[in-house]
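B., you asked whether I could sanity-check this one before it goes into the benchmark set. Here's the sequence:
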Amino acid sequence: MEFSKNLLFFFSALGAFNGLFLSLYFGFLIKNKSRATLFLAALLFVISVRVTKSVFLTFYPGTSSVFVSIGLTACFLIGPFLYLYTKIAINPHKVHTWNWLFHIVPILIFMAIISVEYPYSEYKHLWWRSPPRIFGSLLCIQWTTYTIAAIYQSRNRFRKLWSKTEKITTLDFWIINIVTGGFIIWLAYNTTTYTSYIVGALSFSFTFYITLVIWIIKRRNSTLTFLTPIVKYANKKIDQEKASSIADRLNILFEKDEIHRDPNLKLSDVASKLDIKPHELSQYLNDNLGLSFSNYINNYRIKTATELIQTNTLLTLEAIGNECGFKSNSTFYTAFKKQEGMTPSQFKKSRK
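And here's what the prediction gave me:
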């Protein structure tokens, strides 16, 4: 191979290796894993598989059709995993235990059908002129949609980059960089003919940058708060079955019964309704969701407030705050701005 090709091969292969290493690290080696950690591991894994497929297909044209199909499937899982990571990192309680499967399983089934009906080895010369082209276009639209959704979910984090009053947290920093990296990979894939090379090099830069950040943070003895939340009850972890039961019953209490509208609601009250001890509820919220009790309740209160602001024209903003369970306007405004990145009045104006 020519020197330039050797260099491109090196960067692409190194990017794939770094991604695989980091996905294994986040998925299996890091302590106190959160759900966000696992979806970040999945994101890095599918990026790495995508790059590895491109490397082999470019430099070894005789690569197995099965491996090519796996690589193409991984390509179209990048968007969903990017979206799921940002959603769970920002609002853990909004993605229930198995809901993420609705974003992933249809893609796996769809690509399995395409791989069987149109194996790459038989259609590689007609791949962009036969039915797979239509299916590929649909999946590209899907990837684009998920990428836009991830950016939209992270919009308040990006706003902090230009804000003089809001401080960027460690979680904000990670979300901004991961979403930016995912967008660059999407952009490279959709704007150049030499996708295999450029995506490989960009993926290398993306994963290498994450590696560097991890090293710097560890050198400063900092905690990766969204990856390794502080565990208060590490010696008495709630088992998965009980945690799932608590999640289901909490969902009913807050989504259906809307108990968060009670301004005097306490942790002990919720624990009593769940028929568990208060420390078990606190443990579940801290260990499984990475949230304090007040933050958990405020998430629901703000969610209800945004719905009322958009649908109820009779109540004042102060009345809406009271309806949602806030004891004072100042508490309502502070919590609202913290979660939505704007005051209730600004939110109301933006929805007109």
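One thing to flag: The chain is about 70% helix and 0% strand. Otherwise nothing jumped out at me.
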